[in-house]
Each structure stands twice: as C-alpha cells, then as structure tokens.
Specification:
This protein is of the alpha/beta class. It contains 10 helices and 9 strands. It has helices spanning about 25-30, 30-40, 50-55, 60-65, 85-105, 120-125, 190-195, 195-205, 230-245, 255-265; strands at about 5-15, 45-50, 70, 110, 130-135, 175, 185-190, 210-215, 250-255. The strands form 2 sheets. Strands 1, 2, 3, 7, 8 and 9 form a 6-stranded parallel beta sheet that branches. Helix 6 (about 120-125) links the parallel strand 4 (about 110) and strand 5 (about 130-135). Helix 2 (about 30-40) runs parallel beside helix 9 (about 230-245) and helix 8 runs parallel beside helix 9 (about 230-245). The two termini are about 15 Å apart.
Length: about 270
C-alpha cells in the first residue's frame, strides 16, 4: 500500500449469535454469504474472531485465512468493562496460545467485544505486542445509547496517548478507529439493513471522508427478533455500498495493511 488517500477498512466481528441464551453459531456457519460478497469486490477484510469460534471451527477459519486477515476478538467475548486486569490478560493469553498453535505466528490485531475499551486494556495490548487495536468509536451517533466510554476521538488511524486513548500520543500500538459517515452514522450491521441505500448514496455525493469503516457481525446475516425480515435488505445494501465506495475511489484495506501504512510515520 502506497497511499493514505481515501481508505476503507472492512471487518467482521465473528462470535456466537446475539441474544441467544445458549451459545449458537449459525452466523459463523453461514458466514460465506458475506465473505462471497467481499470476494466479489476483491476486498481483503479483517475477521475479528473469538477464541471459542477459532477452537470450534478451526478448519473453516484456516480456509478463510487464505483470503482474509484473522485477528483477535478476545477469547470468550466477555465484555472488558466487567473484567479486571488479570482477567483481560488471561483472555488474550488463551487466544494467543490457540492462534499460535494453528497459524505458527502471533495475532497483530484486536477489537474488544462491543467496543468496550479503556487505557488499561490498550496498555495490556501494547505489552502483548499487538500492532493495532480497532475498538474506539470516534463519534458515536448522539441519538444512539452506548454503554461504553463517551467523547470524541480522531477519525483516522492514530497512536493514542497513554493517559487518554481518545487523543493522539506516543503509544506503540496503532488505534484504527471505527469511523462512520456524517454525524457518526455507521456503515455497519443493522444500520446497513435498515437505512435505505439512497441515504448513504446521498451522503457520499457531497462528503467523502478520508477514512471510513464498513463493519458488521457474523450474526447480521440472521433473521431474528430484533431485525426481522431485514436480512435480504442487508445483503443488497452491503453489495451496493461496496460498489458505491469503489466509484468514489476508496482503497479497501485490512488492519495489517493500515498498520503498514501508518507505522511508517512512527519509524
């Protein structure tokens, strides 16, 4: 990758299905419905995978790794605001041991479950030699309730400050923010399914941010109680949004590629 101009980071959080009392993985088992759209557009997406998915679907993940980057989404998907320092460390260590046994290398990317991240977590990731994190939401929509941190952050990849990860500093781990369109409108999951494509097309007709993300969950492909009958709309809109970004001259990149671009400024 040679340029920082108009980058689009595409990723999926791959975990057990949402809102199930027991852990089911129907989204994981049908994920190629999304991945085939990425393949159609030649997109080198990043798959943030939990340890229990990697353990349960080892051969499937190995197959995915031929086309996509495999990164860490914790081991068990427990929310990090409920874990102490030692428990967070344990989640990472357990994932890294499993990942290394399969891929003979260490993971370099991380995203916290539900984007719940803080300074302690980023310090642990830095100590564990992760190259980048992608958990910070720089501008969460004002009309959407969020249980995580509050406040704005840079909307392009940056190296965080040690005492405030929402501003630039001198940490050695790159933060790849989950950046949306105007007003923080995300190109993500249920937003893609529920917001008419014409709205996104209108926004991009007069504003093309230099960095934007398209992200979703493995269970976004499922019809369930809180997104009934929106799955067909999700697939259609996702395909059209990716085509739109191509016409706007965005370069699709994964987390590793973004790190390679922005780490040059750190050297």
């Amino acid at each position: 990758m040679k340029s920082k101009n108009k980058l689009c980071f595409v990723s999926i959080d791959i975990e057990h299905d949402y809102a199930d009392k027991e852990k089911f993985f129907r989204g994981v088992e049908n994920l190629d419905k999304i991945l085939d759209i990425f393949r159609k557009h030649g997109i080198p997406a990043t798959l943030f995978i939990t340890g229990d998915v990697l353990e349960k679907y080892k051969e499937t993940v190995i197959k995915w790794s031929k086309d996509f980057e495999i990164a860490c989404h914790s081991y068990s998907h427990r929310f990090w605001n409920t874990l102490d320092h030692k428990e967070r460390q344990g989640e990472l260590d357990k994932f890294k041991i499993l990942y290394s046994s399969i891929f003979k290398a260490e993971p370099i990317g991380f995203r916290s479950p539900s984007h719940l991240i803080d300074e302690d977590a980023l310090h642990i990731l830095e100590e564990e030699r992760f190259s980048y994190d992608s958990s910070v939401v720089p501008n969460y929509p004002f009309f959407k309730k969020y249980r995580g941190y509050k406040g704005r952050a840079p909307a392009v990849p940056y190296y965080p400050h040690r005492t405030d990860i929402r501003r630039k500093g001198e940490m050695n781990i790159l933060e790849i923010p989950v950046a949306g369109q105007l007003f923080g409108l995300p190109l993500a999951g249920i937003w893609i399914a529920r917001i008419p494509f014409l709205v996104f097309r209108s926004l991009f007709s007069f504003y093309n941010p230099p960095f934007i993300t398209v992200n979703m969950h493995s269970w976004d492909i499922l019809d369930n109680s809180f997104r009934k009958s929106s799955v067909d709309q999700f697939f259609s809109s996702l395909d059209r949004i990716l085509s739109l970004l191509e016409t706007k001259d965005y370069t699709f990149v994964n987390g590793r590629q973004i790190y390679e671009i922005f780490s040059k400024d750190k050297r």
